[in-house]
Each structure stands twice: as structure tokens, then as C-alpha cells.
Amino acid sequence: MRATLMYGAGDVRVEQVPDSVIKLPTDALVRITASCICGSDLWPYGSMRPEDGPARMGHEFIGIVEDTGPEVTTLNRGDLVVAPFAISDNTCQFCREGLHTSCTHPQAGFWGGSSFEGGQAEAVRVPLADGILVKLPVEADSALMPSLLTLSDVFGTGYHAAVAGGVNPSTRVTVIGDGAVGLLAVLSAKRLGADQIILMGRHQARTDLGRKFGATDVVSARGEEGIEAVRELTGGHGTHVVLEAVGTMPAYQQALGVVRPGGVISRVGVPQYEDAPIGFGGLFRHNLRLTGGPAPVRAYIKELMPDILDGAIEPGKVFDATTGLDGVPAGYQDMADRKSLKVLIRP
Predict the structure, then answer these.
(1) Cβ distance 162 to 266 under 8 Å?
(2) ∠ at Cα 25 (15, 96), nearest 5°?
(3) For 215-273, how does the pLDDT look when each residue is reduced to its tens digit (9 = 90+)?
(4) Which of 162, 237, 267, 288 could form a disulfide with 283 if both were Cys (CB 3.0 to 4.6 A apart)?
(5) Are 71 and 21 in contact, with CB atoms under 8 Å apart?
(6) Cis bond leading into 106, ω under 30°?
(7) What secondary structure does DSSP assign to 284-320, as a single string?
């Protein structure tokens, strides 16, 4: 079968690999019908060392169950399923508390790399299948497929940012970043009732989509100019909640600049730093709170799915390009060059 591997920065290849097979009694074999390239994949695409490769790629996918191990009880051949980006058993104490990204099962982890297979492929072995896979009540050719695919990561991640930040009808919100997660953080804040949602982004096609998702204001400036613009829109105080969907130090500093006293910064952009201002002049002086983290999207799938099935929301609009596996390397480059927002893969 064919699968996507990253060999180093800028070096993505689609190659023949051994067929995925059942290895453990709790496994399922899934034939992938839809997957995609994630913005977080661009971090290793820009910096991965050759000695760290090759790594299997792809952590967002939908597919059809082709086979199951003897201990799998909730799935059958032919089921159409979506997989969260974190592998979990859905039964440990952290999973029961809705924190699937901290699952304690020995097989828990994240798709791709050298430890697990990836979703940018024709098929994948799914560990802990009963815990991770969620059935979809549609056919594989449904027009809802792009939106349902966002449940595997980007919609759940944007929603996690808003939930962790405490977004509600009484909060003003700033979203930093106009990538897929940032745009779906806008959609999530709107879903949770925020009246004012300021989107900080510089790409008009993306910020236009952000307005359709619920952004009331767009600020294209960065740094001090951008901070001042947000404060002008909020009576000089800033917003109650900042959803940071980028992961760089400038984005964190921008969040500090636009959050109001007593407010919350909720980070879901994968941090590209370890040290950040959190002391007296950073968070302490004005009672600021810092939250977020890798989204336990498994906890949100069944909550968010009905609105997609009903047509109330269409998060799949973040996909602006579609390719087969042969086009995946070019898809990475197009996303890195900001020619594409998010690339859908139809193996």
C-alpha cells in the first residue's frame, strides 16, 4: 500500500510500505477514504532533521473498517468511522474525565512518527479501536465528509480552545491566527454565544471566511499596532478571552497584549518555545490565567457532530484544496507557501 513519509525538512514522499495488518486483538484495520494535511505538520516540514526521519504522516482521517481483532466489540466490517488525533482507550481515569490526550494505556499516543502509522495513506492499523473510533451515520461519499473530517482535529481543537477559555455570551474574544484551527476557534466562540469576536489574521480570503464563521472584527496588524487596534475595539481594556492558535512567541506576546485584566489566554497552537513571560509583569500582576493544551477531541466528537449532520454549521469550509496521495508533497508546499489553507486528501 502507499503512505506518506517525511524524510526531513521539505522532503515529503509517498512510497510503498508494507500493508497494514491486525497485530493485536484490540486493533482494527481501516481503509482510509478521507484525510488531510494539518497546519501542525508544517512545523516538522520546516525544521525536521534527516536523522529523525523517515516519519509516517497524518493524524486526521475517516475510513471504513475492513477487519477487527477478536477483542473489538463495538465495531463491524463496513462501519464508516472517524479517528481523533490522539490514541486512547476511552476507559482510563483521564479519559473518563474527558482528557483523552493523557490516557494512561500503554498503547496510547499520537498518530504518525516512528511509533504509529499515519492517516495520509491508503490504510491504517488502529490500536485500541473500541476506544478511539467513532461511527459516522452517513455514507463515505456524503457531501458532509469534509466537515465530519474536522472532528478528528481542527474543529475539536478550536472548540477546546474556546471551552478551556470559558467563552460564553458574556465574554469578548480575540482569536490569534487565521489558519484552520483559528477559524474554527471563531466558529466555536460563536457557537458558545460570544457577542464580539476579533480575528487577528493577515490573509483576506481566510479572514473573510472567519467573518462567515462569526468574527465581528478583523485586525490585520501585528505587534504593538495590532494590540492597539484590539484595545481600540474594546474600550481600551482588551478581551476577556484570547484563543491563541499559532504557537509562536510573537503570538503569545500578542495574546498578553490584548487580554484584559482577569482574563484568560487559551493556547492550542503547538508551542514552539519552552520559556515565556508568566511572572509578575506577564500573568501575575493582572490576574491573568493561562490554559489550553492538546485538545482531547474524542471528548467533543459526539457533542459537535449533530450540528454538522443538521447543516447548522459547516466547518469543512476550511478545506480549499483536494488531492489524491500523489499530490500530497505539493500540498505540503502549498500550505507552507500559504497558497492553500488546508488540503483534503482522497486516497
Answers:
(1) yes
(2) 100
(3) 999 999 999 999 999 999 999 999 999 999 999 999 999 999 999 999 999 999 999 99
(4) 288
(5) no
(6) no
(7) ITTT-EEEE-S--GGGTHHHHHHHHHTTS--GGGG--
